[in-house]
Design a protein that fits this description.
The complex is a heterodimer.
Chain A lengths: L22 H23 L2 H23 L10 H11 L7 H16 L12 H12 L1 H4 L15 H5 L13 H6 L12 H13 L6 H17 L4 H8 L4 H7 L11 H21 L5 H19 L8
Helix pairs in contact in A: 1-2, 1-3, 1-9, 2-3, 2-4, 3-4, 3-5, 4-5, 5-14, 9-12, 10-11, 10-12, 10-13, 13-14
Chain B lengths: L26 E2 L5 E5 L9 E2 L6 E2 L4 E4 L8 E2 L4 E11 L2 E10 L15 H7 L12 H5 L9 E6 L8 H8 L1 H14 L4 E7 L3 H10 L5 E6 L8 H9 L14 E5 H13 L5 E7 L7 E6 L4 H7 L9 E4 L6 E2 L13 E5 L1 H4 L12 H5 L6 H9 L3 H6 L10 H5 L6 H14 L2
Helix pairs in contact in B: 3-5, 4-7, 11-14
Classes of the chains: A mainly alpha, B alpha/beta.
The complex binds iron/sulfur cluster (SF4) (2 copies).
One iron/sulfur cluster binds next to helix 10 of chain B.
């Protein structure tokens, strides 16, 4: 007896098969990449960093869930994007930031920037970046109270404070490159001081084909070139700038954000270069650590325009 | 990002699964007890039925007559009597079908006295494009005054997964294949012929390379990704020219035919033989013995499945055509038609499409689109009810390849939206 049993199921038209990957899988890869700087954060700033990360994630997921319940929308917390936002935001704050500032940041990110503009895939601004910049504007004393890593927790300036203000060369107090790269003895946001960990994250995301390698490379490259030009090719100045502040963190995790960057590869490259150059200008002109955040927001707002001018020519048109 | 998509080319890398049948040489399937001939085996107007119930027919008897410019003749593939003429729903359309009961005598009748005019012979024998679209072949060769065919592209790409019919034909009937091409070339005084073939067809490529000694026939090996075989994409890959929306290849002085069509045309011209059978790949993990079969047109799919040993597990989907562009077979008594190159069975696991999620704007659909559309933007505009915008975004240029839906990690039915938008745009004209 041969088996000929068959009843048709599913849609009539193709495609009848799909690539196996899912949005969740992509987001999980980002979460894995976030583990590297988090380990560094715990190593340099203590277990409290972990508490911050967890609180922030719980807050973001909770807020998203509550908001979507209240407005009767489909709950989308299973897509992990709120987890990423919460995690990212926590990593951009110093260990001394009171938890309530973190929670305000989470609220701004999830409710104001993300949900009120339509939820995942629709927000214009990068939620974590916008929240970070607003916190910086309004809650500066609380969240710029940098500390150097343990054991001797003392208030200190970030290395950037020595580099800003139209400085054209490295000041004597700027840590050496190895310290800047590894995060030894640096003050700053918990996730951003160890460039080595960020490098690992970047490599992981590139290896997993989650981000286009040219995007962070162009961001950093254009930033570095701008700094070189400005300082009259003072490499130590440009190096110090490259390894200071949130630049590398943002280049790996934020400039590469899918939702708030342009659709085409060409657009993404323009976006990346824009972020790098603007960040350099902001650092030079206004003494503003976290200038990359503002740069990203500006480029976010320009994204529709970039999209418009980078549409590929349609076949046959 | 880079593994799934060949960036510059567009398109996607789909597991091809050709190994299931690529070494299976073509076997003849015995004629079934009954054949079912739908009158719409080609695009354009359905053929007009010219037989009546009870009438005896032979192999090659005209059953449906070409009706209008874009239409094609349909012939009986068995000898016997016309049992029924009825309306049936096949796919989404209701269509007239002629059911013929086989008397197994296999008596022949050649179609209308052969004519001097070669295009006329192709037309009489009911040749249509056998790759899927079913465009009447005579129309391709019916040139207007200022037109000429400079290049003939033989589309042997077979980019859909699973299907191996064309490469088997090339391997097994190499001499006829070359002879067929040369004949067409002479008949239309075509300057050059290019055989476009996917790099994964190694055996066919090796044989062709050894065989082609003719200056005018060239081999073009194309990368192994999807939808490299779509007409517009092949033309671009071979000639570097782009076919604008709504234009025919002949507007670029190009003719394009797939392998089976070349054979059918060759036999029509040489022996006045109508299109009554074709090679079909029957494949997929639920099929017991996947293979390549030469099947009479009109054979119920049930017989074909039977010849392959039936199913090892009940498939979730049976598809007429490939998994990307094929259409679901709703019933096992649907017949093999002139355009059936593949009958594919997919398991539940393979055919399962997870629930749609929100777009994360990963841009993969944009990178995948071989004609450079922004599928997600079109889908968004359609869902927002903005049909004008979908038109501006070039929805009519979409070639329905499905690469965008295939790649989307959020499993959004982008092509579904695009098809619907296209429909709306066409209606509003
Ligand atoms: S529709 Fe799918 S593939 Fe296209 S951008 Fe959105 S998530 Fe990515
Ligand atoms: S928009 Fe059309 S042509 Fe582009 S990938 Fe999707 S189905 Fe293919």
């Amino acid at each position: 007896m041969i088996n000929k049993e068959y009843t048709s199921t599913g849609p009539f038209m193709g495609p009848h098969i799909r690539e196996k990957w899912t949005s969740q899988w992509i987001m999980q890869q980002v979460l894995i990449a976030l583990v590297f700087p988090t380990i560094a954060a715990v190593y340099f700033f203590g277990l409290w960093s972990l508490v911050m990360v967890i609180v922030s994630i719980v807050a973001c997921v909770g807020l998203e869930f509550a908001f979507q319940k209240i407005v009767w929308k489909k709950v989308t917390i299973t897509d992990y994007s709120a987890v990423i936002t919460g995690w990212l935001l926590a990593l951009t704050l110093p260990v001394t930031a009171p938890l309530w500032t973190l929670l305000i940041g989470d609220f701004i990110a999830i409710i104001v920037v993300k949900q009120l503009t339509g939820g995942i895939g629709r927000n214009w601004l990068n939620p974590a970046v916008a929240a970070r910049v607003l916190l910086k504007l309004f809650f500066s004393p609380w969240i710029t109270n940098w500390v150097t890593p343990q054991p001797d927790v003392v208030a200190t300036a970030t290395p950037l404070a020595d580099l800003g203000n139209f400085a054209r060369e490295v000041s004597p107090t700027t840590p050496d490159l190895v310290d800047l790269f590894m995060g030894f003895g640096l003050g700053g946001p918990i996730g951003e001081t160890c460039k080595f960990a960020l490098l690992l994250s970047g490599i992981y995301l590139i290896a997993r084909k989650i981000i286009n390698p040219l995007v962070p490379v162009l961001t950093l490259g254009s930033f570095y070139s701008a700094m070189l030009l400005y300082s009259g090719f003072d490499f130590s100045f440009a190096n110090a700038h490259l390894l200071s502040g949130a630049l590398i963190f943002a280049a790996v995790f934020m400039v590469t954000d899918y939702t708030t960057s342009p659709l085409t590869d060409k657009g993404k490259y323009i976006f990346a270069i824009g972020c790098g150059v603007l960040a350099a200008m902001l650092r030079i002109c206004i003494d503003l650590p976290g200038g990359i955040g503002v740069a990203i927001l500006v480029m976010n707002l320009l994204t529709p325009l970039i999209n418009k001018y980078t549409v590929s020519r349609i076949y046959g048109e | 990002m880079f593994v799934r998509i060949k960036r510059k080319l567009g398109g996607v890398l789909v597991p091809k699964n050709k190994w299931l049948t690529k070494l299976e040489s073509i076997k003849d399937l015995n004629a079934p007890g009954r054949i079912i001939l739908p009158m719409n085996m080609h695009i354009g107007k359905p053929a007009k039925i010219v037989v009546s119930t009870g009438q005896t027919v032979k192999i090659g008897t005209l059953i449906g007559a070409k009706d209008g410019m874009i239409s094609a003749n349909i012939h009986s593939s068995v000898s016997g009597t016309v049992e029924k003429i009825e309306q049936r729903i096949i796919g989404v359309n209701e269509v007239s079908v002629v059911v013929i009961k086989n008397d197994f005598k296999d008596t022949y009748e050649l179609p209308q006295a052969s004519s001097e005019n070669l295009v006329e012979i192709i037309k009489n024998n009911g040749i249509v494009g056998m790759g899927g679209a079913g465009f009447p072949t005579d129309v391709k060769f019916l040139l207007k005054e200022h037109q000429y065919m400079e290049t003939l592209i033989i589309n042997a790409v077979e980019c859909e997964p699973f299907v191996t019919a064309d490469r088997r034909i090339i391997i097994e009937q190499m001499n006829d294949f070359i002879a067929g091409i040369s004949m067409l070339q002479e008949m239309m005084s075509i300057k050059q012929c290019v055989i476009a073939i996917e790099s994964s067809s190694e055996e066919a490529i090796r044989n062709l390379e050894a065989k082609i000694d003719n200056e005018q026939i060239k081999l073009k090996i194309l990368p192994n990704h999807y939808p490299q075989g779509a007409e517009k994409i092949v033309i671009k890959a071979v000639l570097g020219k782009e076919l604008p929306a709504g234009k025919l290849p002949i507007d670029l002085n190009v003719g394009i035919m797939n392998v089976s069509t070349v054979f059918a045309t060759f036999h029509a011209l040489k022996e006045n033989r109508p299109l009554i059978d074709r090679v079909v790949t029957v494949s997929g993990t639920p099929i017991k013995h996947p293979q390549n079969l030469r099947v009479r047109i009109g054979t119920p799919i049930e017989n074909v499945i039977e010849a392959c040993g039936g199913f090892v597990e009940s498939p979730m989907k049976l598809i007429n055509g490939g998994p990307m562009m094929g259409k679901v077979i709703q019933n096992l008594d649907e017949p093999v038609t002139k355009t059936t190159s593949l009958i594919l069975a997919l398991t539940r696991e393979e055919a399962n499409i997870p629930e749609e999620q929100n777009c994360i704007r990963c841009s993969e659909c944009v990178n995948a689109c071989p004609v450079n559309l922004q599928p997600i933007s079109i889908s968004n505009a359609y869902r927002a009810g903005n049909i004008e915008e979908t038109k501006r975004l070039g929805v009519l240029n979409c070639i329905d390849c499905g690469a965008c839906s295939y790649i989307c990690p959020s499993k959004i039915d982008i092509l579904g939206d695009i098809r619907a938008a296209k429909q709306k745009v066409l209606e509003s004209r």
